[in-house]
Amino acid sequence: GLNVTDLSPFAPPPGQSDAGARKARDFGDVRATATNDLYPAVATHINALKAAGKKVVLACYSDGSCERLKSLLTEQGVKFDHRIVTETLALEHGFDAPQLAVLTEQDLLGDRLARIGKKKKKSDAFLFELSQLHEGDYVVHDEHGIGQFEKLETLVIDYVPHDCLKLVYAGGDKLYVPVENLDVLSRYGSAEAGAVLDKLGGLAWQARKARVKRDLLALAQHLLDIAAQRILRTGAAIHVNDNSYERFVAGFPYPETEDQQKAIDDVLADLDTDRAMDRLVCGDVGFGKTEVALRAAAMTALAGYQVAVIAPTTLLARQHYQNFQKRFNGFPIRIGMLSRLVAPREAERTREEAASGDVNILIGTHALLSEKIRFSNLALMIVDEEQKFGVKQKEKLKALKENIHVLTLTATPIPRTLQMALSGVRELSLITTAPIDRLAVKTFVLPFDPVIIRDALMREHYRGGQSFYVCPRISDLEDVRDALKEIVPELKVMVAHGQMAPDEVEEKMAAFYEGAFDILLSTTIVESGLDIPNANTLVIHRAEMFGLSQLYQLRGRVGRSKQRAYAYLTFDENKRLTKGAEQRLQAIEKLDTLGAGFQLASHDLDIRGAGNLLGEEQSGHIKEIGVELYQQMLEEAVAAAKSGAKEVTSPDLWAPQINLGMAVVIPEGYIADLNLRLSIYRRIAALNDRAEIDAFAAELIDRFGPLPKDVDNLLDLVEIKQLCRLVGVAKVDAGPKGAVIAMHPSSKIDIGKLVAYIGKQTGTAKIRPDDQKIVFMRAWDELPQRVKGVHRVLGELAGLL
């Protein structure tokens, strides 16, 4: 086989110890170990193979990777012809033959260009996607506070275009942020909930941020205490020794999605330890959360322990009961149910069997919280649609038995729960992959119009389907039924609501499920978990009266088959919508993609705020500094508390000013959509090292085609920016005759080493002590020379740290 051991991207160059190489890598010295050592070494190796008479094939995972690797090696003197070629081949490792050498990008780079080596948590990736900027949004600048994003503007400086974000502050002050520095901005979530613009250059922002940082350190200590208590709580280590669990898994008729399998693996791994689990599984409606719960319940019940499943409504509890009965058919597992649909005598017998251990899995509503309930050996509590339960109810759930495993399922976690998951207080698994053939629900927000409603309901009827018509109040049902008699007299309408007798509700739901009626006119009793695949049109009456997660849950009642589903959210055009209602309707209309539940929860976090993490009141610091910065500072505070630090140290993300005389724009002809262009700018600004930059470049090529020179410039600039932050450089001005580098006050460069370094430059560099600038006199007439020259100088300065 081909020996490429000495081509490791972090192999120490001659004269540098392993420790030195590690330091360069750890500090993110972008090209000191990567480009300066790796690509030249690769180029030398390829040219040597060619000289030996071999054909060299570079195998990459995508066309973008091929083109990126080719451009990087061309810079190093590799000439691609019929003897040296790139091919798109999904090979992990190459081989060496007498007349042929195949090298893969994984052999050469230690990873693939097609993916970034530094893995991010899935929840982080979701929040990043949510943080796309739109014109008019409120944003938070790390140094200057809350401003309003007005537009993306191209400034022409010395005849060279440079894209900048124009921000407006109090008093009309304007700030232009270069696109390569967008990582100093974060989205302010609750703009409409009382955002106040800061004064540019004022002291109020820094004081506010310092106060929040101080309070968060105390909060972080509480979080650690909670986490420590959870770790100290021991639960039953659950595993099954025979093959009964595998037989249960074989009964699942669908292929598991990647996210679903990951969530199952996470839950089973938690159960297999003696530490009490507290995991939140967040997945869109119909994405397979119930199967995760079934697997956990099967593992627990087959191991001889009891399981409690609690749902917010009688209908959902009934549906879970039926699903569990079907899946556990043929297994020695007894399943019981407690809700108002169960007769008193049968309920009493079920409670007795739960206490004796004869019932293995008990499913119910809040009836499970009754003081009458006793379990013999309860080990797992599954809570479905947790946003329906109050804080006290959820604490009572855990108090049923102190050392039990808790698994929570939700499509739209309440802000407080979402914040707890993102802060690490609760473990989080996300299911974001749609099942095969699932289509997103087409959503329309509109004033009530009888013509449109008739067209929607009749279209569903003619294609053999059924419809839901949901009202916010029982008092509305009679009027709406009369209206439907006039609008669609041909269709059969059935009314159901929570104040009906349990037997009547069950009878009506069974009739609708069997297709005896065309329209189910109801209140929100259909909101949670109902699975009627034949119902694929939803009309919501007075939609402005519902909460955001309610609207999302209701919309999830349709679109659960391969049919395209439609949701019509109507409002009274004669009544003025409140700002909050308008926000909710806009959010639900925009979030019409599959897997949007987590995004919706984050929008809810924006609109409502997260609240105090440790209390019931819905107030907190998010409103003062914005949701993104709050989350970042909370993570820093947790890290500080773990290390025992008395104060929080944040990474210093100042915005280096870099002027190399080159265009820094993404041309409209390359990416036409403004919002997408802004999203790409944000992702580029957040890149950390050469590996991430090359991987992202490969992704851009695959998505949009070969990189224009201006985009290549931008990627080079981001790399230089990271070196500036590493070295402590505030400003770089470079031209044909050299560069002037201004040091940042945070620079850690040793002055003695710097003076010695300048002395070795044979008159081509000097220090201006009056303004703390270093002047390099170099001949950099061509732009590529200038970029490489500045990069080399910054790399040399990094060596003085």
Description of the structure:
The protein has a seven-stranded parallel β-sheet with strand order 12-13-11-14-15-10-16, with helices on both faces. A six-stranded parallel β-sheet has the order 17-22-21-18-20-19, sandwiched between helices. The protein has a five-stranded antiparallel β-sheet with strand order 8-7-6-5-9, with helices on one face. With 801 residues, the chain is of the alpha/beta class. Helix content is 41%, strand content 18%.
Number of DSSP E strands: 27
SS element count, helices: 26
Question: Helical residue percent?
Answer: 40-55%
| Structural class determined from secondary elements | alpha/beta
Low-pLDDT ranges = 1-36, 116-131, 594-598, 601-619
Radius of gyration: 31 Å
Q: Numbering strands along the chain, what is their spatial order in the largest sheet? A: 12-13-11-14-15-10-16
Distance between the termini: 40 Å
Shape: globular
Major beta sheet summary: 7 strands, parallel
Mean of residue pLDDT values: 79
- How large is the share of residues in beta strands? 15-25%
Defining traits:
alpha/beta; 801 residues; seven-stranded parallel β-sheet; 26 helices
Concise overview:
The protein is of the alpha/beta class. The protein contains 26 helices and 27 strands.
Strand and helix layout:
Blueprint: H1 18-26, H2 30-51, E1 55-60, H3 63-75, E2 84-88, E3 95-96, E4 100-104, H4 105-109, H5 122-130, E5 138-141, E6 145-157, E7 160-168, E8 174-178, E9 185-187, H6 204-232, H7 244-250, H8 258-271, E10 278-283, H9 289-302, E11 306-310, H10 314-327, E12 335-338, H11 344-356, E13 361-364, E14 378-384, H12 391-399, E15 405-410, H13 415-422, E16 427-431, E17 442-447, H14 450-462, E18 466-470, H15 474-487, E19 493-496, H16 502-513, E20 519-522, E21 535-540, H17 548-555, E22 566-571, H18 579-590, H19 597-608, H20 622-625, H21 627-643, E23 657-659, H22 674-685, H23 690-704, H24 709-727, E24 729-735, E25 738-743, H25 751-759, E26 765-768, E27 773-777, H26 783-798
Parallel strand pairs: 1-2, 1-4, 10-15, 10-16, 11-13, 11-14, 12-13, 14-15, 17-22, 18-20, 18-21, 19-20, 21-22, 23-24
Antiparallel strand pairs: 3-4, 5-6, 5-9, 6-7, 7-8, 24-25, 25-27, 26-27
Helix pairs in contact: 3-23, 6-21, 7-9, 8-9, 13-19, 24-26
